[in-house]
Every structure is written in C-alpha cells, then in structure tokens.
Amino acid sequence: MNVTSLNNDGQAGRQEMKDTLQFKLGNVTRLVFKKMNSELVQEGIPVMAEQVPILMVVYFKEHDITQQDIANVLQKDKAGIQRSVQTLTKDGFLRIESDIEDKRKNIISLTASGKFVCEKIQALAISFNNQIMEHFTEEERITFLSFLNRVAGIIEK
C-alpha cells in the first residue's frame, strides 16, 4: 500500500466521520448553544445555555423536585447538576430547601427572578425555533421532527 492510497483512505474516513449522525448532531448542538448563549447575553440574561435545561426542568415541574430528579430527567451526573444548581442558587434563580420527610434530599424551586428568567428564556427559545423553522415548509418541519423522534426512539430501544 502506498502513501497516496493511505491519504485517500484517510480523507474518505474523515469525510465518512463528518457524515455520521453523531458528528452532524454534535455540530448542530454546538451551533445552537453558541447562538443561544449569544442571544442570552444580548437580552441581558445572566445564564449560560448549558444551565437552561436545569432551569426549565424546575420551571415545568409538576411536583417537588430534587437534584437527583433533575439529574435523572436530564440524564446527567448528580455532581454536575449539583454544581450548576449551586451556581444558579448563588445567582438568585433557584432556592434549595431540605426535604421535610428526608433531610438527605434537597428540594429545588425557582425564585421570583428564576421564574422571570425562565419566561424570557422560553420566549427566546420559541423565537429561535421559529427563526430556524421558517426556512422549511410545513411538510418538511413535520418530516424533520418525525425523523428526530424516530432516531430518539431507535436509540432508546
């Protein structure tokens, strides 16, 4: 095997990797977070896009929620969630209270500032989604979302 064929195989492998689901979704996710961070800064919202899922889980909760519950919903490690919750508490968006029944658990809730920020974030997210989706027909949007749901379903099996 010569150097030219190795280079061609390497280039083909690199292109094949760039065309994988992991690479494409990873790239889109990175771009979405970058754009969302930019819009959060522009709107004067002192939250990083990486913290938004935590706030939204608490915002949309239907009952008391613990740090472990948040970690489970987001499928993240408890230590990472704990660091983010502490930061968001220090920033005045979340409140941590001991569970009355089990003192080992902490109940997480939004402060008034946290609720206000979540409402602004929700409006930003919807606006961002609309900005992207306006480039697709209704049929393309339905098909695109259907494909994403199907991929998620396949992975979760």
UniProtKB/TrEMBL annotation:
One of its GO terms (molecular function) is DNA-binding transcription factor activity. This is HTH marR-type domain-containing protein. It comes from the Bacteria. GO terms for biological process: response to stress. InterPro entries: HTH_MarR-typ, MarR/SlyA-like, WH-like_DNA-bd_sf, WH_DNA-bd_sf. Coiled coil: none annotated. Residues 18-153 form the HTH marR-type domain. Transmembrane segments: none annotated.
